[in-house]
Input
Amino acid sequence: MAVNQSELTVERFIKASPAAVWKAWSTPEHLEKWWIPAPMECRVIKLNLRAGGGFETQMRQGDEDFQPHVEGCFLEAVPESRLVWTTVLREGWRPIEPWLALTAIITFTPEGNGTRYRAHVLHRNTEDSLKHQEMGFFDGWGTVIEQLAKTVE
Output
């Protein structure tokens, strides 16, 4: 884990191939299992893995109705290697006003018999980065990476 002004990073070694980690990221039924910290539930609305493709998830706790979680746009999708998405655009490059503007760069690097999974998040400024950190960035994103690892290991 690291904090660098307007950027936050979490990473973990996962004992599974980049192909297996990519499958957990790129398949809605797999993404729903780990994308939001349990016991919250996730529902994938859009997962169009191509530049300009939409990314939208919802979340709920218990019997509550599903609520918006993330709406964004993929900027880059290189299977088994790199995924870049932002919350300042929605599908088709259409600008939106997110509750928190960020760009996430997810990398899947082969390492030994597994994958070095890294989530590097860029914010507009240091204040937004600190806000994200205070909201529990490291606990939340760290928890979902653990859940991802349990899904594929």
